[in-house]
């Protein structure tokens, strides 16, 4: 959706969207009912339409920070984008409940799930693969472990359908979905001691206070500058993470446990404090089997009881597929250009496709890189992202687009640069950019 929106804004392209679901919104249609963005709504969605009202919450745990849309609001938003903007443009056609059955390079066909009708599309320019890094949420697949017949295991989506409680709750998973499930249970009155959290890995998380746009953009730029300063001054990877934690750029759930994972989750202070109330954390690797009396894990086993309710929050989320060129003669494969900002990535790729003719130049401006997984991946995605942005500085049209793109986290930077605090942060950022990149690349070459 973000790709199509950006493409038709910059060209007269004719776009055919083939979607296996009945409506737009992708994995949001399969997400758990209490999900909401962990980034601000202000830079999520498509460029042409604001998601929400770009307002700062005045009450509740997100007070003082920009609003974060719920899953239901996001699905409604994408439907409105389709109905009120893309389709009326006469440049976009949408075919829901259809599967692509072509070979990506030759004949392009799709088949209707409801009628079986097969259609052929003559692609004049390129086929766009927006499924290469498709998110996979727990409700979309079977669990990766075996379960005894009488064990009560549910996907996280089914928490809202409970009719009776268990003797306790065992949440399985280490990512943001598991965190959301734990917080939902706590908010619903479940005592912290009634929650057992099987957390194979602990992760580093971004501090939400420093990931704010628009009128709070100064904090985001300050955060970037502190990250680069920490990187430039770090003696080794361990020292780097100590510095990032000391300047509040990265946070962790348990100060006594060294994180080994980084998936770009964004956490607020209230969430951090609530999650720390759960003390029964199991760190013995992934679950292999759940029985009525014992849980088998990669590194051991623990006792359980037959009335326990298990909540499956496992899964890798966005696929971490190997990188491939984004621009090829007949194909565009949407991937990560800037770390963990999927709709921005799609939009900037579409802009470059529209305004550049040579695939070599397009790939130079949009080099793909893997989504992070391990903690040390923070080093690679940060250095890679900074290298990419330095390429953009020499492209006046791209820089102008970035300044006005609502999906760009630093949108409006130039007009807000008159603020003395902003100027100080920008000065620190540029002073440390090259030393930080050099240091990160040196640490990576040394195996960190």
Q: Can you offer a commentary on this structure?
A:
The protein folds into 2 domains: 2-137 and 318-371, 3-Layer(bba) Sandwich (FAD/NAD(P)-binding domain); 138-202 and 252-314, FAD/NAD(P)-binding domain (3-Layer(bba) Sandwich), CATH 3.50.50.60. It has 12 helices and 22 strands. It has helices at 2-10, 71-86, 176-187, 217-233, 237-246, 269-275, 342-355, 359-365, 377-392, 396-404, 413-416, 420-445, and strands at 15-18, 92-95, 98-100, 108-112, 118-121, 127-129, 135-136, 146-147, 152-155, 169-172, 195-198, 203-207, 250-251, 261-267, 281-282, 287-290, 294-297, 300-303, 309-312, 317-318, 327-328, 331-333. Strands 9-19-10-11-15 form a 5-stranded parallel beta sheet, with helices on one face. Strand 17 (294-297) and strand 18 form a beta hairpin. The protein is globular, with a radius of gyration of 23 Å.
């Amino acid at each position: 959706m973000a790709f199509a929106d950006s493409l038709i804004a910059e060209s007269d392209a004719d776009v055919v969207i083939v979607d296996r679901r009945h409506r737009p919104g992708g994995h949001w249609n399969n997400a758990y009912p209490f999900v909401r963005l962990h980034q601000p709504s202000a830079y999520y969605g498509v460029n042409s339409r604001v998601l929400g009202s770009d307002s700062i919450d005045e009450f509740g745990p997100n007070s003082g920070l920009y609003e974060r849309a719920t899953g239901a609001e996001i699905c409604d938003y994408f439907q409105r984008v389709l109905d009120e903007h893309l389709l009326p443009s006469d440049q976009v056609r949408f075919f829901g409940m259809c599967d692509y059955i072509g070979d990506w390079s030759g004949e392009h066909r799709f088949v209707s799930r409801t009628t079986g009708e097969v259609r052929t599309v003559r692609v004049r320019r390129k086929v766009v693969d927006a499924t290469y890094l498709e998110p996979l949420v727990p409700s979309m697949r079977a669990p990766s472990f075996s379960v005894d017949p009488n064990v009560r295991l549910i996907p996280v989506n089914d928490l809202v359908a409970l009719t009776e409680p268990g003797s306790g709750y065992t949440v399985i998973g280490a990512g943001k979905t598991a965190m959301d499930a734990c917080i939902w249970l706590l908010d619903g009155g479940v005592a912290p001691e009634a929650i057992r959290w099987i957390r194979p890995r602990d992760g580093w998380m971004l501090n939400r206070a420093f990931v704010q746009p628009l009128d709070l953009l100064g904090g985001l730029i300050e955060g970037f500058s502190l990250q680069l300063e920490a990187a430039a001054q770090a003696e080794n990877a361990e020292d780097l993470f100590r510095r990032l934690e000391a300047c509040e750029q990265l946070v962790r759930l348990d100060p006594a446990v060294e994180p080994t994972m980084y998936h770009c989750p964004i956490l607020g202070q209230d969430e951090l404090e609530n999650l720390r109330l759960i003390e029964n954390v199991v760190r013995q690797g992934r679950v292999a089997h759940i029985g009525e009396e014992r849980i088998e894990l990669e590194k051991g086993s623990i006792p359980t009881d037959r009335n326990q309710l298990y909540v499956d929050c496992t899964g890798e989320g966005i696929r971490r597929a190997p990188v491939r060129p984004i621009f090829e003669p007949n194909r565009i494969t949407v991937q990560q250009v800037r770390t963990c900002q999927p709709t921005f990535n799609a939009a900037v790729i579409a802009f470059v496709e529209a305004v550049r003719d040579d695939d070599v130049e397009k790939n130079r401006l949009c080099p793909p890189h893997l989504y992070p997984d391990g903690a040390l991946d923070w080093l690679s995605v940060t250095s890679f992202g900074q290298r990419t942005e330095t390429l953009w500085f020499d492209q006046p049209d791209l820089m102008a687009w970035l300044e006005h793109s609502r999906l760009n986290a630093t949108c409006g930077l130039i007009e807000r640069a008159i603020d003395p605090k902003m100027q100080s942060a920008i000065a620190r950022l540029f002073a440390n950019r090259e030393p930080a990149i050099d240091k990160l690349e040196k640490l990576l070459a040394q195996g960190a």
